[in-house]
């Protein structure tokens, strides 16, 4: 276990959000980053393998360093990722998400707890209470809520290319952006080194 931890620390834990061409402002970037952990339809998936996912999840605040990551947690993450993508389709002018598509977000909402915090200036914030993936996912719901109130939520969209669906932040004046990035649409990671470790060749 010690050897495992050392190796994880030495590895790059960032994925793509630090290189997004159309990044959302923090903290909304956290939702964009989760949606963009996979290149659809058949590209690399940062959340397919627990050894790949773990350092990224810790670095992105979706689990504590000492927390256990189960297969069910990974499945929930992937389900939430696609639920978020379905919600973002609506921001992009597409249909509203279905009941089934929203279900993973409701699962997180039903199981999680938010805690109020007061900082040194007296500002009050809400944060997820707990160290596990299901508990920390509540943070993303809180980020969604704030972004929906502030209006930035509507600018977080997914690419209009059905084969791509990459999440991007639309900074255009008329909110009319449709594509993630013309030059590399649908080809985000294919030309990029897949930095997560590919340990299990038999997967
Ligand atoms: Zn695209």
UniProtKB/TrEMBL annotation:
Pfam families: ABATE, zf-CGNR. It comes from Mycolicibacterium rhodesiae (strain NBB3). This is Conserved protein containing a Zn-ribbon-like motif, possibly RNA-binding. InterPro entries: ABATE, ABATE_dom_sf, Znf_CGNR. SUPFAM superfamilies: Jann2411-like. Residues 155-198 form the Zinc finger CGNR domain. It comes from the Bacteria.
């Amino acid at each position: 276990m010690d050897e495992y931890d050392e190796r994880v620390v030495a590895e790059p834990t960032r994925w793509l959000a630090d290189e997004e061409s159309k990044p959302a402002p923090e903290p909304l970037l956290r939702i964009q980053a989760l949606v963009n952990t996979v290149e659809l339809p058949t590209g690399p998936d940062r959340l397919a393998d627990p050894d790949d996912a773990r350092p990224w999840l810790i670095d992105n605040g979706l689990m504590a360093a000492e927390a256990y990551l189960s297969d069910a947690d990974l499945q929930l993450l992937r389900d939430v990722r696609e639920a978020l993508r379905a919600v973002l389709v609506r921001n992009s002018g597409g249909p509203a998400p279905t009941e089934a598509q929203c279900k993973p977000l409701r699962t997180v909402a039903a199981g999680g707890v938010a805690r109020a915090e007061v900082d040194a200036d007296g500002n009050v914030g809400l944060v997820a209470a707990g160290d596990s993936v299901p508990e920390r996912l509540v943070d993303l719901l809180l980020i969604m809520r704030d972004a929906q109130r502030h209006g930035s939520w509507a600018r977080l969209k997914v690419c209009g290319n059905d084969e791509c669906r990459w999440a991007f932040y639309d900074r255009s004046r008329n909110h009319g952006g449709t594509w993630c990035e013309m030059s590399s649409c649908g080809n985000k990671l294919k030309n990029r080194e897949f930095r997560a470790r590919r340990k299990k060749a038999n997967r």
